Amino acid sequence: MAPPPTGGGPVATPLGAKVERRNLLRAAVIGGSSAVLGGTLWRGAAYAAPAQPGTGPYGALGAPDARGIRLPSGFTSRVIARSGQTVSGTSYTWHNAPDGGACYADGTGWIYVSNSEINPSGGASAVKFSSTGAITAAYRILSGTRQNCAGGKTPWNTWLSCEEVDRGYVYETDPWGAGAATRRAAMGRFKHEAAAADPVRRVVYMTEDVSDGCFYRFRPTTWGDLSSGTLEVLVAGTGTSGPVTWARVPDPTGATATRNQVSGAKRFNGGEGCYYANDTCWFTTKGDNRVWQYNAAAQTIELAYDDSLVTSGPAPLTGVDNVTGTTSGDLFVAEDGGNMEICVITPDDVIAPFLRVDGQSSSEITGPAFSPDGRRLYFSSQRGTSGSSSGGITYEVTGPFRA
């Protein structure tokens, strides 16, 4: 992989002190629970109560704007690109079925990368912005692949684009479009969904989108080079919280399904989004509407959200999908279906809608990602108002996101 052009150096995006506070609060509960349980390793409930509905940090949603998006006061939206149409100010035609995405600093501007979840000819594209947010270029960064769903950003500023097909691959791509995309076969062949890099332990976590899928990590032989390494699967009890271990997957080629190669591998019902910051990897499972929290330092998992454990009123988040985070410690979780919302989960474990897309009930929200300065949120409605993959719409939301 060729290095990015000057101006595209690594950009750290830690969640900051509020996430540390979240983890400290949960750690305190874990410590107390261990004493009470007298050494019991697994139990059916989470160590700390999963997030519950409440008043979000941005207040109530307003009326739909001209694009049908309900936003809190002070926020505005615009359309960045539409599937099958030329991206404004460029000659590039935007791809169908936009899915997972990420942002990259580019000098005083930035780049938003987006996958295409169609099969065949999926791949990924990018839009480049100036310091004022004006679109300056759009281009293809990956072609000839299948059903590229989600993926993840690496600390060395590449985009991992994941194929959501049986025995699918991970492709490492250059958001600047200068370097050729590279298939990373050592990261395993399975129905990939999302990936998240952990620079402390020097591993990449990955989710698997099947009803009896697993949670994986890839340990490169050399950090920064994904051409070789060890694929491992999470091994744990049958509950929703407790300590975990990792075991090597004997055959990453998937000739025998990777999820069936290790006895005791923990099953997850439809792995979706995956996001890492500050010793924590959050990932979602659509089959049971859960947001999981893996504490990499303590090697434990627990539930950050479960719609079946909401104690009052209707669950605000269903159809959990892509997830991202901010420096405030907030998690933003997109819905596949549901009522087409992006919900925010605060460090105090309050969950509330942040935005809603009206008039697009046959679509799903994909690819949430923040600009490097945290002031703009990008996402797509994969099938837009038409309900077809050719009707995708990619948006930008600007406003007073909290630092």
If you had to describe this structure to a student in words, what would you say it looks like?
- With 403 residues, the chain is mainly beta.
- The chain has a domain at 17-53 and 82-318: Neuraminidase, CATH 2.120.10.
- The chain has one helix spanning 17-37, and strands at 52-53, 69-70, 76-82, 98-106, 109-116, 124-129, 135-142, 148-153, 159-163, 170-173, 182-183, 192-198, 203-208, 215-222, 225-235, 242-243, 245-248, 271-277, 280-285, 290-295, 300-306, 320-325, 331-335, 341-345, 350-357, 365-370, 376-381, 393-398.
- The two termini are 33 Å apart.
Question: Summary?
Answer:
The chain is mainly β.
List descriptors.
single chain; 1 helix; 403 residues; mainly beta
| Major sheet description | 6 strands, mixed
Secondary structure tally, helices: 1
Whole-number average pLDDT? 90
Number of strands: 28
CATH fold type of the domain at 17-53 and 82-318: Neuraminidase
Low-confidence stretches are 1-47
Q: Give me the Rg, rounded.
A: 20 Å
Indicate the structural class: mainly beta
**What spatial form do the alpha-carbon principal axes imply?**
globular
State the end-to-end CA separation: 33 Å
Helix content: under 10%
CATH architecture of the domain at 17-53 and 82-318, please? 6 Propeller
CATH class of the domain at 17-53 and 82-318: Mainly Beta
Order of helices and strands: HEEEEEEEEEEEEEEEEEEEEEEEEEEEE
Beta fraction:
35-45%
